[in-house]
Design brief:
Blueprint: E1 3-10, H1 16-25, E2 38-46, E3 49-57, H2 65-74, E4 77-83, H3 87-91, H4 94-104, E5 113-118, H5 130-140, E6 143-146, H6 155-168
Parallel strand pairs: 1-3, 1-4, 4-5, 5-6
Antiparallel strand pairs: 2-3
Helix pairs in contact: 2-4
The structure holds guanosine-5'-diphosphate and magnesium ion.
Magnesium ion (MG) is lined by residues 16-17, 35, 57.
Length: 169
Amino acid sequence: SNDYRVVVFGAGGVGKSSLVLRFVKGTFRESYIPTIEDTYRQVISCNKNICTLQITDTTGSHQFPAMQRLSISKGHAFILVYSCTSKQSLEELRPIWEVIKEMKGAELPNIPVMLVGNKCDETENREVPLTEGEAESKGWGCNFMETSAKTNHNVKELFQELLNMEKNR
Ligand code: GDP
Ligand code: MG
């Protein structure tokens, strides 16, 4: 089909909704509003065709396991977000990554996955050095990027990179 489904995972508060809203609407808010689960659709051109980019912003680690598995089974690409200000948030991604690996199996090498360290603007409160995020992504065999939804650093690039990975596979 012409639907390209991207699923965003990560602990509560790391900035999943902020990244998606920054990309889709170009906005940012300082307040924290916990998400239920939201899907955003954007019509984009890909491989000279028109397709619908569907971005699912999940609730984070507290998502019901059955919901999590459903999101993973429907996903074509995954954004795994932690906050550069929280080592714990990086650790919380591991179980989700394990489920993705298990469910996608032999397909996995063909699935765009980006490990994202968000809030890279928070230099004073940084707990995860860039090199650590990078090393983690190498261990997982996925791509890596640091972003800031607040300053709009690497946000467009993140989604562009995922679409490029899809094209090049
Ligand atoms: P979610 O639970 O992962 O969806 O997180 P939110 O997108 O709701 O963001 C949680 C909090 O972090 C909010 O107060 C946001 O304003 C803040 N936030 C999100 N992204 C950034 C960022 O890149 N830099 C900074 N400094 N704060 C951010
Ligand atoms: Mg949210």
